[in-house]
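Any chance you could type out some protein's one-letter sequence along with its backbone structure tokens so I can compare the two?
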Amino acid sequence: MTASFKSTAVMMRSLLLAAVFAAFAYAHAAHARDVSAAEKQALVAAINAFDAAMTGEDYETVIDASITPAMMKFIADQNGATVEQLRPAVVAQISALMGAIQVDAFSMDTSNIEYKQTDDGTPYAMIDTVTEMTSGSQKIKATGQTLGLREDGKWYLVRVSEQQQANMLKAVYPRFNNVVFPAGKMETTDQ
């Protein structure tokens, strides 16, 4: 093999590799997209409906808005149950928990939503969330972020402030594995 043939072969391999990387980058960019104005409006509507459900103590709607079908199936599978068995138990558990506390204030900051994308280009939103509650004689303020996750044309508002919640989300949706969710904070406040 002559030196010029070797250098031509090396150059061809380099060009081929460059073309493959360019095609990969193009394919990745083709999947990435921004959240549309209509999707942003739908997210704000979902947040308002969630807020109304929390205020109205409609925990079935809260569950439907915050646990995706895939997450519900994951939880059911982990507990050796069906979704049909699990869902009423989750609603009852949330109702009992919420019956033991009084929610004084709840808000998701719709004016400061951060829209981001996973490594594969899947769009999502992070929403600052504050809950103020009273448990017995103690006032508690919880701050953190809620994940806006769009699935099958619907926004779900998923808590990811605690590591256990983030881990479950990542087990169900591996595309979030490289996303770092900031830890929430819970503090007692003066009455």
